[in-house]
């Protein structure tokens, strides 16, 4: 059985599993990291959105064998540690998570880890382009929320964007 | 089944205070409960407790739901239950309560914690609300549905909390050497005038009673509320945003390995034989393969390997009952079943205005697909699942396994949405069968494709509405709703059979669907003789309610005809509704949205407003939307997406009687608005050749960010009653109707089928064999 090794939330992990098993199942079923959720398994609902080397991606669509040894995977569990200390909020969380709390975004909460990881990536992308998030950026977020929390997601994302500037 | 209502009855409904224009009338506040014998303080109340509702003095004939609605039925069904719910005071100063209902996102753990914190004078964060496992002794009092949780539990929970507070005060009085009347309880601490104090935690054992005793208690006056009625964040928000909130598939139950089911290529097809079991068992990670009545189950080390196993299976199937049929065939069947419309009064004199509307199948699939953990071994079963009817689930599973009810433990897990799905226990029952067949614990998860295609759907329906007018006067309105059967076999049926005989107004012996219809549908306008009927036919589909039962479709058809009548009367839709509404509670929310949403403001051609109302769940709502149907908007491009007309602005007002948590209520309305938009514009299932085509979220177009309104304003009306109404489903009907009305006004054409885009298939159907798609491998080329 191939040994798979990558960095997960700041720590190197090694798992014995076949190359073609998608990373989502390695995280959830073998490593017990359950923040990224299953919602479709075909990279359309985006409930499993996490980060690889700081960019948003969907582990349901990545065979674990495609990861390189130094690849850094961040799930919602590891997001707080990626924020500079000065940006962390009253709960010690990433400013986007704090904005989510401030706006009380979650309803059932199932899609929200993915929503937050997507929101952080949308803000980082805008920042890298020296601009602020636009309505088009918001309209382009593909993460589904069946409870229909879209209104508060939009508000919280803009609030998190402010805090991520600090 | 028919119900009738008379005109000109602007009387207050029986719900105390709901429509009162003067000072509110508050019901009695003295109740009996119990202190239970135990090591720490346990206070209890009967879940059947309800405040006395004022006997209705009804001068004329209002519609049945004004006198006795579905929520009264659900609440009264609980009344004979002599069993108790308990609040425990713990030595760490917290209070804990196991709520016999299911949290699925609607916010009842938060609102329940608020009610307890209020009555106990305890900070909200010191109240811990969990979900009770199946408690068969509660009989009908463990069903989460009809947006009834807070309506039926508000008073009993307050009584239990008030008894705990009273006991704490009495114990403190002894300890502090003062009288109860001199003590002040605040934030979990009881203080005497001399400054000495004692905390609830310190009193937890001292206030405990060695025996169970009946206690009389007086509830707080509403005027003194400092938590109930104030906006609060969800108690599970921190867990949700850190990924720590646990859903069924997140639970780590030993040896409960990932399990999936290979399903038939036609809806409800039956497996006859597995042709390559050994081959599938030899696959990497696959542990067990078993044939059950709904398909072939595969248990593996990971869900990815279970998917591989499902895809590799070769199974012989017998076709399901709708094999060969498409949704046009089902519609033909409905049309054939439609009863002739009764003759309208004023024959020869009257004109008719009206329309026939079609509502296609829609999916109530939640983000968290059907899932359950089952461990069936050694004559016992343990189940974990998101269940809104856990007692019925327990009984059905026990029957299936040949076990006693008491040998089946059913744990209720928080779930990622319900929208009607979790009234049923499809996954729990299936998981129990699989675990029994394999002799091993299983963590069953339906693939999204299963959930979309073989899961439950909101039934297809037609609704015919006719208004009879003499001159400009509406003298009668009839609505005839014909639907594929709505499945209520989740326990509501039991409640109804138990209470139907007591129903007032002669609705006693109706079938349960008709009973539900009768108890939920109202036309709050002065339209002369109003008749609404339901006929259900065709039992071949897996159906259920979908964030509300009949109301969104019924109200949409109804409100479109109200707009036609307004046009006929030469009045604008708002003014006409205002003139024709019978009930002040509805008129007030209508006025509110018209004012806040700037009804009648100037908009470009192709952009229009629509306005609609709804009355249900002990409350009233109104919605004003603006929709943009200009070509540049309709034809905007988003990759792999349905765009179409865009709702750009929504103003929504809700009166729920007594709002417990306005922030949670606002959230529920925001969600309901997105559901209404989906129902009107984009979301439906297409039956083709015996199977639903939609296999995932790229085929089924629930509202997405590119469809959601950029501007949403929800107004929670100030309290109009001392009793709370329902929230979870209350936002959908008026929103759906308002979007439909706005679309008709923007385009000049009244749509006759919903969603309006049902005729256009905007995707390529995924294969039916194998039944689930393989996960892509190119995820690293789509990072951002």
UniProtKB/TrEMBL annotation, chain A:
Query: Which Pfam families would you find in this protein's record?
Result: Fer2, Fer2_2
Please tell me whether the keyword Protein biosynthesis is annotated for this protein.
no
Q: What is its EC number?
A: 1.3.99.16
Could you name the domain of life of the organism this protein comes from?
Bacteria
Q: SUPFAM superfamilies from the xrefs? A: 2Fe-2S ferredoxin-like (SSF54292), CO dehydrogenase ISP C-domain like (SSF47741)
Is Oxidoreductase tagged as a keyword? yes
Keywords from the UniProt entry: Oxidoreductase
**UniProt xrefs under Gene3D superfamilies:** 3.10.20.30, [2Fe-2S]-binding domain (1.10.150.120)
Pinpoint the 2Fe-2S ferredoxin-type domain residues: 7-54
Gene Ontology molecular-function annotations: 2 iron, 2 sulfur cluster binding; isoquinoline 1-oxidoreductase activity; metal ion binding; oxidoreductase activity, acting on the aldehyde or oxo group of donors
Provide the top EC class: oxidoreductase
Q: Sorted alphabetically, which InterPro entries does this protein's record hold?
A: 2Fe-2S-bd, 2Fe-2S-bd_dom_sf, 2Fe-2S_ferredoxin-like_sf, 2Fe-2S_ferredoxin-type, Aldehyde_Oxdr_Iron-Sulfur, Beta-grasp_dom_sf
Where does the [2Fe-2S]-binding domain lie? 75-157
The name of this protein is Isoquinoline 1-oxidoreductase alpha subunit
Q: Which organism is it from?
A: Nocardioides daedukensis
From TrEMBL, chain B:
Gene3D superfamilies xrefs: Aldehyde oxidase/xanthine dehydrogenase, a/b hammerhead, Aldehyde oxidase/xanthine dehydrogenase, molybdopterin binding domain
Stored SMART domains? Ald_Xan_dh_C (SM01008)
Q: Which domain of life is it from?
A: Bacteria
Please list the residue ranges that the record marks as compositionally biased, kind Polar residues. Answer: 775-784
Entry's EC annotation? 1.3.99.16
Q: Which UniProt keywords apply?
A: Oxidoreductase
In alphabetical order, the GO MF annotations are: isoquinoline 1-oxidoreductase activity
Residues of the region (Disordered) are: 761-784
All copies of domain Aldehyde oxidase/xanthine dehydrogenase a/b hammerhead, residue ranges: 242-321
Which InterPro entries does this entry report, sorted A to Z? Ald_Oxase/Xan_DH_a/b (IPR000674), AldOxase/xan_DH_MoCoBD1 (IPR008274), AldOxase/xan_DH_MoCoBD2 (IPR046867), AldOxase/xan_DH_Mopterin-bd_sf (IPR037165), N-heterocyclic_Hydroxylase (IPR052516), OxRdtase_Mopterin-bd_su_IorB (IPR012368), TAT_signal (IPR006311)
By what name is this protein known? Isoquinoline 1-oxidoreductase beta subunit
In its UniProt entry, the species of origin is given as Nocardioides daedukensis
Taxonomic lineage of the native organism: Bacteria, Bacillati, Actinomycetota, Actinomycetes, Propionibacteriales
């Amino acid at each position: 059985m191939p040994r798979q090794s990558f960095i997960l939330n700041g720590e190197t992990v090694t798992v014995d599993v076949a190359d073609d098993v998608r990373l989502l199942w390695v995280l959830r079923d073998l490593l017990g990291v359950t923040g990224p959720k299953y919602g479709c398994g075909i990279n359309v609902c985006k409930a499993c959105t996490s980060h690889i080397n700081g960019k948003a991606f969907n582990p349901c669509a990545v065979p674990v064998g495609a990861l390189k040894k130094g690849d850094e995977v961040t799930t919602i569990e590891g997001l707080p540690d990626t924020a500079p200390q000065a940006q962390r909020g009253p709960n010690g969380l990433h400013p986007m998570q704090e904005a989510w709390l401030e706006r009380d975004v979650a309803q059932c909460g199932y899609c929200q880890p993915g929503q937050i990881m997507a929101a952080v990536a949308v803000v980082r992308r805008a920042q890298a382009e020296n601009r602020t998030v636009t309505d088009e950026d918001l309209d382009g977020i593909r993460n589904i929320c069946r409870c229909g929390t879209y209104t508060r997601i939009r508000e919280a994302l803009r609030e998190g964007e402010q805090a991520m500037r600090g | 089944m028919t119900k009738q209502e008379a005109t000109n009855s602007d009387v207050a409904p029986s719900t105390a205070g709901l429509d009162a224009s003067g000072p509110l009338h508050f019901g009695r506040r003295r109740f009996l409960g119990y202190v239970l014998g135990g090591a720490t303080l346990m206070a209890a109340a009967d879940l059947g407790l309800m405040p006395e509702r004022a006997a209705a003095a009804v001068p004329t004939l209002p519609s049945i739901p004004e006198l006795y609605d579905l929520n009264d039925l659900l609440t009264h069904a609980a009344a004979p239950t002599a069993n108790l719910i308990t609040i425990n005071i713990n030595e760490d100063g917290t209070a804990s309560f196991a709520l016999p209902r299911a949290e699925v996102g609607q916010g009842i753990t938060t609102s329940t914690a608020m009610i307890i914190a209020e009555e106990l004078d305890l900070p909200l964060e010191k109240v811990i609300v969990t979900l009770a496992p199946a408690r068969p002794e509660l009989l009908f009092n463990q069903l989460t549905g009809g947006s009834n949780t807070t309506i039926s539990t508000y008073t009993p929970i307050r009584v239990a909390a008030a008894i705990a507070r009273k006991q704490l005060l009495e114990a403190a009085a002894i300890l502090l050497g003062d009288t109860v009347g001199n003590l002040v309880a605040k934030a979990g601490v009881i203080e005497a005038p001399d400054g000495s104090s004692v905390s609830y935690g310190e009193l937890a054992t001292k206030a405990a009673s060695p025996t169970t005793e009946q206690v009389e208690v007086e509830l707080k006056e509403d005027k003194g509320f400092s938590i109930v009625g104030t906006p609060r964040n969800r108690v599970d928000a921190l867990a949700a945003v850190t990924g720590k909130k646990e859903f069924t598939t997140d639970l780590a139950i030993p040896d409960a390995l990932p399990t999936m089911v290979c399903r038939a290529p036609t809806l409800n097809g039956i497996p006859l034989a597995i042709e390559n079991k050994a081959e599938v068992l030899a696959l990497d990670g696959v542990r067990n393969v078993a044939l059950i009545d709904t398909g072939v189950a595969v248990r593996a080390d990971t869900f990815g390997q279970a998917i591989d196993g499902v895809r590799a299976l070769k199974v012989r199937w017998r076709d399901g009952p709708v094999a060969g049929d498409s949704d046009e065939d089902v519609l033909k069947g409905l049309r054939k079943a439609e009863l002739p419309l009764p003759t309208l009064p004023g024959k020869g004199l009257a004109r008719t205005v009206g329309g026939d509307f079609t509502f296609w199948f829609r999916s109530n699939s939640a983000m968290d697909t059907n899932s359950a953990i089952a461990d069936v071994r050694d004559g016992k079963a343990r189940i974990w699942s998101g269940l809104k009817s856990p007692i019925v689930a327990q009984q059905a599973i026990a029957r299936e396994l040949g076990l006693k009810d008491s040998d089946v433990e059913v744990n209720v897990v928080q779930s990622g949405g319900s929208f009607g799905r979790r009234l049923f226990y499809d996954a729990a029952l299936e998981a129990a069968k699989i675990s029994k067949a394999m002799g091993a614990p299983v963590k069953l998860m339906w693939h999204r494709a299963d959930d979309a295609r073989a899961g439950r759907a909101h039934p297809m329906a037609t609704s015919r509405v006719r208004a009879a007018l003499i001159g400009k006067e509406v003298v009668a309105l009839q609505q005839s709703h014909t639907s594929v059967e709505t499945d209520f076999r989740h326990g509501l049926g039991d409640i109804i059979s138990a209470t139907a005989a007591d129903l007032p107004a002669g609705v006693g012996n109706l079938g349960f669907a008709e009973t539900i219809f009768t108890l939920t549908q109202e036309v709050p306008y002065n339209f002369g003789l109003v008749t609404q009927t339901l006929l259900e036919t065709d039992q071949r589909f897996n159906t259920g309610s979908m964030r509300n039962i009949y109301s969104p479709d019924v109200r949409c058809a109804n409100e479109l005809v109200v707009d036609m009548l307004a046009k006929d009367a030469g009045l604008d839709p708002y003014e006409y509704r205002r003139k024709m509404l019978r009930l002040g509670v509805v008129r007030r929310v209508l006025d509110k949205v018209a004012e806040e949403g700037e009804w009648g403001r100037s908009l470009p051609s192709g952009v229009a407003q629509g306005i609609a109302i709804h009355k249900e769940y002990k409350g009233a709502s109104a919605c004003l939307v603006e929709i943009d149907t200009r070509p540049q908007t309709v034809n905007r491009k988003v990759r792999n997406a349905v765009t179409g007309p865009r709702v750009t602005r929504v103003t929504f007002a809700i009166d729920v009687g007594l709002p417990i948590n306005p922030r949670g209520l606002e959230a529920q309305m925001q969600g309901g608005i997105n559901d209404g938009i989906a129902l009107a514009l984009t979301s439906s299932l297409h039956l083709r050749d015996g199977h639903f085509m939609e296999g995932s979220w790229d085929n089924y177009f629930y509202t997405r960010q590119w469809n959601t309104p950029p501007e949403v304003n929800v107004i929670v009306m100030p309290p109009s009653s001392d009793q709370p109404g329902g929230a979870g489903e209350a936002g959908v009907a008026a929103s759906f109707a308002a979007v439909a009305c706005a679309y008709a006004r923007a385009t000049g054409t009244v749509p006759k089928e919903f969603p309006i885009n049902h005729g256009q298939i905007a995707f390529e159907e995924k294969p039916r064999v194998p039944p689930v798609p393989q996960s892509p491998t190119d995820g690293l080329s789509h990072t951002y």
